[in-house]
Amino acid sequence: MAAAIVLLATGCASVGAAPVGEGALSTPAAVATLRSEGHEDPQPGTTQPFDRSAHSTTNPASIWVVINKTHPIDAAYRPAISLVRGYQVAVPAAGPLTRLLADSDGLGLGFKIASAYRSYGYQASVYGNIVAASGQSAADRVSARPGHSEHQTGLAADLVTPASPGCDFEACFARTPGGRWLARNAWRYGFVVRYQPGSTAVTGYSPEPWHLRYVGRPLAAELRRTDTDTLEQFFAINGGDYP
Ligand SMILES: [Zn+2]
């Protein structure tokens, strides 16, 4: 009779599908475990002022480095790399990106990585191709000149969704299920959507709802808590256009 009681208690219609004891009661606990796994927010009552100097914002190996049109990255810099689904990602971001992709897969979002680490030389070819096709001023709105892309840190990744291929690298990505999920949940994995609407004058780039930048969970949570859209504003670092 135990099995019957469990089925009644959970309202489960698929009789025989679940072992006794495994039903609705286990689901909230599993969800809670997933949500809290590995990255706890500070406990109430023990909150310390956020330490904005905990990591360098100028060392390209730092998870808080700020690379923009006024703060270049050394052409020779190359991060320590780990592979995530065949793409090169800086070591600190690899585990969190793997978890983000696994959880989003579980929700049926089906993200693919379109681009992650890009060397100085590769960025030069990407930018050069866009300049050749669209001219320099148009290219500068959507692509970084070599030495000004945070993809060279290995901490950035561009995601696309095969379900909405027309929105790959387009503004409408923000309105896809995947884009909406990233905007709400990327911070849980330590990522920020780096180029947001209304911040072009600060970041120097048009909105890119597909471009994630790893900064670690504490900073991602603090940016969210303080409703701060850009690293430049949070750290009072100049951005905007090329000097
Ligand atoms: Zn990108």
UniProtKB/TrEMBL annotation:
Polar residues composition-biased segments: 44-56
A Pfam family it matches: VanY
Keywords for this protein: Signal
Superkingdom of origin: Bacteria
SUPFAM superfamilies recorded: Hedgehog/DD-peptidase
Annotated signal peptide: 1-17
Domain (D-alanyl-D-alanine carboxypeptidase-like core): residue spans on this chain: 93-216
Region (Disordered), start-end ranges: 35-56
InterPro entries: DD-CPase-like (IPR052179), VanY-like_core_dom (IPR003709), VanY/YodJ_core_dom (IPR058193), Zn_M74/Hedgehog-like (IPR009045)
Protein's name according to its UniProt entry: LD-carboxypeptidase LdcB/DacB
Protein source organism: Nocardioides endophyticus
